[in-house]
Amino acid sequence: MIKKTLLTALTVASLTFALSVPAFAKSYITSWHLVDSGKHLDYAGDSIYMSHINTGASIWNGYKSGVIRPDTISTIEDVYVSDINIANGNTGLTYPSGKIEMNKFYLKDSTSTQRTNTATHELGHALGLAHSTSSDIMGPSQTSITTLSANDKESYDESYKRY
């Protein structure tokens, strides 16, 4: 009886492990990024949302320290952050030409956390990250997420290899 119970338990355990699907993060990257050859993304701007950009930079730098930094007189600006006020369906936009636009039309009614999400998301595009899943900072819509997910980190790791 003990052998039969033990055999049954081992069979159930084996099937459980054999049939379980491991969860892996997936990377989502664009064909471009704004990081310079020194592996830095130096930013400046006149956006009224610069405090959120600074917070977004801190969120990304919390994972890979020192990559995103404010532009100085001794560095070349890689991205400029400005504001637009257009009903275009986007809270922010990032361009391969080195421009981030924060959209006041939508952000004026957003919470501070949502603004930080947008700023962090747009900096992610500047790092070369594409849209991912809705539970990520790089999800396709504005959320209140301000913590990097496994997908955000995996995407950043993959994009970082290109710098």
Features:
Collagenase (Catalytic Domain); 5 strands; alpha/beta; disordered N terminus; 163 residues; five-stranded mixed beta sheet
Describe the structure.
The chain has 163 residues and is of the alpha/beta class. It has a single domain, classed as 3-Layer(aba) Sandwich (Collagenase (Catalytic Domain)), CATH 3.40.390. Helix content is 37%, strand content 14%. Helix 2 links the parallel strand 1 and strand 2. Helix 2 packs across helix 4. It is globular, with a radius of gyration of 21 Å. The chain starts with a helix and ends with a helix.
Instruction: Please give the largest β-sheet.
Output: 5 strands, mixed
Residue stretches low in confidence (pLDDT < 50, at least 5 long) are 3-22
Query: What is the domain tally?
Result: 1
- Amount of beta strand: 5-15%
**Average pLDDT, to the nearest integer?**
90
User: If you compute it from the alpha carbons, what radius of gyration comes out, rounded to the nearest whole angstrom?
Assistant: 21 Å
Span between N and C termini? 63 Å
- The class by helix and strand makeup works out as alpha/beta
Helix % is 25-40%
CATH class: Alpha Beta
Widest sheet: strand ordering: 2-1-3-5-4
Shape: globular
Topology-level CATH name:
Collagenase (Catalytic Domain)
Order of helices and strands: HEHEEEEHHH
At the fourth CATH level, what is the homologous superfamily?
Collagenase (Catalytic Domain)
**Helix count from the secondary structure assignment:** 5
Give the beta-strand count: 5
* CATH level-two architecture: 3-Layer(aba) Sandwich
